[in-house]
Amino acid sequence: MAKQIHESGEDYLETILILHTKKGSVRSIDIAHEMELSKPSVSRAMGILREGGFIEVDNGGFITLTDAGREVAETIYERHRFFTDWLVGLGVDPEVAAEDACKMEHDISAESFRKMKDFIEQNCNKN
């Protein structure tokens, strides 16, 4: 069973999901390049995520998300895309919007996110 995860772990899982979608396979070096982190930092994080039940690493070093890891990654990525798009729609520079979305995606509760998303979709997307 997966354990509790920290914000940095959520970022790693989101990155693994994105890289897997783009490339089809993911290794630690890919994550290090994408996140601009050192290989030892990524290796340590992968160990923690593996022990927590969020990822699996095969003998070739290829990383896959477990069901628990995929659930976290998809939740964070959905929030990231939603907040980025919403902020850009308000006129925020896309780079700033993406940075702010990264901060917002971790701290909002599931209930508040769902209510905010529903409200914005119902009231702000009318043409």
Could you characterize the architecture of this molecule?
The chain is mainly α and 127 residues long. The chain has two domains: 7-71, Arc Repressor Mutant, subunit A, CATH 1.10.10.10; 77-123, Orthogonal Bundle (Diphtheria Toxin Repressor, domain 2), CATH 1.10.60. 70% of the residues lie in helices and 5% in strands. The chain contains six helices and two strands; from the N terminus they run H-H-H-E-E-H-H-H. The termini are far apart.
Topology at a glance:
Layout (H helix, E strand, L loop, with lengths): L6 H17 L4 H8 L3 H13 L3 E3 L5 E3 L1 H23 L4 H14 L2 H14 L4
Antiparallel strand pairs: 1-2
Low-confidence stretches: none
Q: Which strand order spans the largest sheet, edge to edge or round the barrel?
A: 1-2
How large is the share of residues in beta strands? under 5%
How many domains? The number is 2
